[in-house]
Amino acid sequence: QVQLVESGGGLVQPGGSLRLSCAASGNIFSIYAMGWYRQAPGKQRELVAAITSGGSTNYADSVKGRFTISRDNAKNTVYLQMNSLKPEDTAVYYCNADRVLTLQALRAYWGQGTQVTVSS
User: Fold this and answer.
1) What is the pLDDT of residues 53-83, one digit of tens each?
2) What span, in angstroms and rounded, lies between the C-alpha atoms of 7 and 116?
3) Which of 57, 81, 102, 111 has its CA 20 to 30 A from that of 66?
4) Phi, psi dihedrals of residue 62, rounded to the nearest 5°
5) What gap in Å lies between CA 35 and CA 45, rounded to an integer?
6) What is the CA angle 55-15-48, rounded to 5?
7) What are the b/e assignments for 61-74, b being 16+ CB within 10 Å?
8) pLDDT per position in the chain (120 positions), as tens?
9) Can you list the pairs that 37-40 forms with residues at least 24 positions away whose Cβ atoms lie under 8 Å?
10) Sign, Cα dihedral of 84, 78, 4, 52
């Protein structure tokens, strides 16, 4: 019933930028936190950045100073601006919505993932 739709992935050269978007749709009353995780081949999924409904943010050390997460609460949408991209940022990026409140439940949801490839 709740869907997360991601967009903005692609191929970019080292040093380049990309902006990811994730929109949550459905009969949503509120979402506590939204964020981005990534999973590279052969590695575990890891948190990249997250933001609460109040605007508090959390970043992985590896992306601090390069990535910026933002959120439009009215649109249930989260953005990830990625600058100064490095080859090690290559991964599938997943959107996460935590503690999503609907009539039926309070639970987390995941997007389908979007590929980000940083290569020359």
Assistant:
1) 999 999 999 999 999 999 999 999 999 999 9
2) 11
3) 111
4) -70, -15
5) 13
6) 35
7) eebeeebbbebeee
8) 899 999 999 999 999 999 999 999 999 999 999 999 999 999 999 999 999 999 999 999 999 999 999 999 999 999 999 999 999 999 999 999 999 999 999 999 999 999 999 999
9) 37/93, 37/94, 37/96, 38/89, 38/91, 38/92, 38/93, 38/94, 38/116, 39/91, 39/92, 39/94, 39/113, 40/88, 40/90, 40/91, 40/92
10) positive
For residue 52, what are the CA distances in angstroms to 3, 58, 91, 96, 115? 19, 9, 24, 12, 24
Residues recorded for the chain: 120
